Queue: 3 jobs
Job 1
Amino acid sequence: MSLMASKPPVAVYDACVLYPFHLRNILIQCAFDGLVEARWSDEIHAEWMRNLGTNNPSIDSQRLATTRDRMKAVLPDANVVDYETLIPGLSLPDPDDRHVLAVAIVAKASLIVTWNVKDFPAIATIPYGVICQSPDDFLLSLNTTFQEALIDSVARARHNLRKTVPSVDEFIAGIERQNLLAFAEILRRNKSRII
C-alpha cells in the first residue's frame, strides 16, 4: 500500500520508547519519513533524558539535550503544549502517567506508543479515542500499512548511526535486544533491503 493511500497515525511517543537508542532512532526516522505523526512534550523528553542519565552516568547531559534538540528540530510539529489543565481530571493506575494521556488528548492522537501498556488501561484511554500499543506492535502495524516505506525508513535509520554504521545483522540484533522481537523477524526477512 502506498504512503499516499493511507493517512499516517498520530502517535504520542512515551518516554520509555525514546530511552533506547535503536528504537528512538527508528521511531524518529519513521516520523520524519511521514509514516507517523509523532507527538511528545517537554515533560516526556525530560523523563527519558533523566532516566537515561541516571542509569548511564557516563552519558553527558549536554549530549542528551543535543539529541532532544535535534529531534525537536527535525519534527517541529511534534511538541505538544497546553495539556497540563487536563491532568487532574484523568485517572490512570500511576498518576505520574497522566501527562502522557493529556498530551495525546490535546494532540488528537489515536495512539500512545509505550512499553507500559498496562499503565494505560483501555477503560481510561478509549473514551478519548486513544489506544496504547507496544513499540513492537506499533512497528508491526506500520509494516502492515506502509510495508515498503517502513523498510526504507529502517534502512535510513541504520545509516543515521554516524560513528560506525553497523552491519545489517548487528543492527537487527540491536533491535532484537531492545525486545522488538516480532519486528526484528520482519527485518530479517527483508535483510537484503536494509543496506
Job 2
Amino acid sequence: MHMSKFMAELIGTAILILLGNGVVANVVLNRTKGNGSGWIVITFGWGMAVFVGVFCTNDFSGAHLNPAVSLAMAVGHKITWQELPTYIGAQMIGAILGAVFVFLFYRAHFDATDDANAKLACFCTAPNIRDYGTAFFCEVLGTFVLIFPIFLMTNPWVPGQNGRADSGLGALGALPVGLLVFAIGLSLGGTTGYAINPARDLGPRIAHAFLPIKGKRDGDWGYAWIPVVAPMVGGLLAAFAARAISSGATH
C-alpha cells in the first residue's frame, strides 16, 4: 500500500484528535458511560490516541502529527523546508476533521450538557490558573520533553535511507511515543492540559467556532496563541539542543 505524506499526516492527525478529544468528551460530557472517570483516563486515552495515529502512518510520513514536530524535523534535516507546509497543512485539516467527528459522535451528549466550558474542553486546552507566562513556559517545556527524545534516539542529521520515513514521532516507535505522551500528561499536564501540538489545539478550536453546538461559549481566542506558539518554540529548542549535543560529540 502506498500513501502520500499529505494523506498520511491528515489521516493520522484525524485519528489522533478523534480518539484524544473523544476521551475528553467521554469523561466531561453528561450521561456518557465514562462521565467523571477522571484525569488518568484522559491521559491514558491521549497516549493510546498517539499510539494508534503513529502506528498507522509512520511508514508513510514518519508520523509527525504535530507542526512542532515537523518544524523540528525541518531544522534537523529530516524533511526539507519545502515539505513543511505540506505537513502542517495536512495536520491542520486532519485536526479539524477529527474534531468534527467527535462532535457528531457525541452530539446528543453535547446537547445534554449545560457547562459551556466542558464543551469547549472537548476541543481545545485552557490553563487552570490564568497566568499566561506560566502557561507559555509549561507548553514549551512539555513540547521539548516530547520532541527531544526523538533526537536522542535517532541520528537527526542523516537523511532517511531507502525511501523510508524515519523522522517524527514514529522514530521512537508507536508504543514508546504513546507511553511518552501518557507520562507527559500525568506529570506535566496539570497546568495547561498539555496541548504540546499547535494543530491539536487550533484545529479543533476552529471547528468549535463553526459547529452548531448548543449553548457553546466563545473559543477563548485570547489564550489560543499560547498552545500554537509555545509548542513551536519547544520544538525549536529541542532541535537546537540536539544539534549542540551532536556537535559536542563530534569534537
Job 3
Amino acid sequence: MSLAMSLIRCDLHHVEAIRSILNDVILTSTASYDYEPKSADWIRSWFQTKLDSRLPVFGIQTADGDLIAYASFGPFRPWAAYRYTIEHSIYVHRDYQGQGLGRTLLQTLITTAIDDGFHTMIGGIDGANMASIRLHQSLGFSKCGEIREAGFKFDRWLDLHFYQRFLEDRVFKPQHTLSDQ
C-alpha cells in the first residue's frame, strides 16, 4: 500500500463511494455474481446492518480522502450452528487493482476476525479470478469446495470456488457470536 493511502474504518459518509466501487464490479466483472447496480438506499441499509451487528467495514482511502477499496465480513449462513463461521468480501476500484490493497484489507479482516473470536473465514471466489485465488492462498486459505456452473453472467457459466482459513490453532475458544448482537 502506498504511503499516500491509509487504512480506515468506513462510516456512513462512505456510502456513495462504496456504491460506486460495488456497482462498477457488478457491471464489469465476475467478482460479484449480481446483475443489478445497488441504490444508495440499499448500500445504506447494508451498512447500517453491519453497524448494528458490530461487523467491520474497512476501507482504503487516498491522501485526498477518496475511498478506493473496501472490505467486510458477515455471517456465512443464517443458522445458529454457523455462528463462528464468516464470509468476507473485498472490492478494489479498478484503477487501483494490483497494488496490494486487497492484501492489506484481507490481512486486516483476518486479524479482526481472530480478535473477535471467530473460528473460520470463507471466501467465495469466481474460478477464473486467479488474482484473488492467489491472494487467498498466499494468506493461508485452502480450497475447500467448488460448485461448477453455479452462476451465469456475461453469457457464460461461472464456477464458484470456496476458500477457507481457520482463524486459530484449532483450540476452540469462542468469544464473539453473531447471535450476541
